[in-house]
């Protein structure tokens, strides 16, 4: 994916790729040393996810332009990333035309969202923010214990492991899990994982490209 993006951008003739990173932590370090005009950031990455990496990059350099390029483009992800300071959001299947246009736009101080995302944002939902600036769908507020259970379940822990980690019974884990799923209106563990990534609760494993 990174090699393909580099080839595409360098073939365009208007861009120079100054660095690449294999994980979020490396992205933060390279952003600080290379000071690129635009950073193409994924969301799900090893070591440090895109939400956390973007926070750290913009904390060190508020003028950095972070443009999200991700397979995860649901409303929760878009809201989370724009809340922490990303200036645009594109799906990974976005055409080369829109990618190059997006880079030009954000360099010139504008925001850019792919057409499908822009349309959803225009017609979109309102989301309630918590004290960290993260978002809870439809204003839902999970308790701290529910949040911890969701985090551990999303990391792939079995109920027995979650119970041992939190010092509670397996039955109590089940109650917290069901309560959280009810509040979030989800029915599958995969949906909890989706929510946990969107809220920056867990890390995952796709790569990032820095330009």
**Which architecture of the largest domain would the CATH scheme give at its second level?**
3-Layer(aba) Sandwich
- Mean pLDDT over all positions: 80
The CATH H-level superfamily of the largest domain is Response regulator
Largest sheet: 6 strands, mixed
Radius of gyration based on Cα positions: 18 Å
N to C succession of SSEs: HEHEHEHEHEHEEHHHHE
Uncertain stretches: 125-138, 204-211
Strand order of the largest sheet: 1-8-2-3-4-5
Give me the oligomer status: single chain
Hey, roughly how much beta strand do the residues contain? 5-15%
The SS-based structural class is alpha/beta
Task: From the 3D structure, determine the CATH topology of the largest domain.
Answer: Rossmann fold
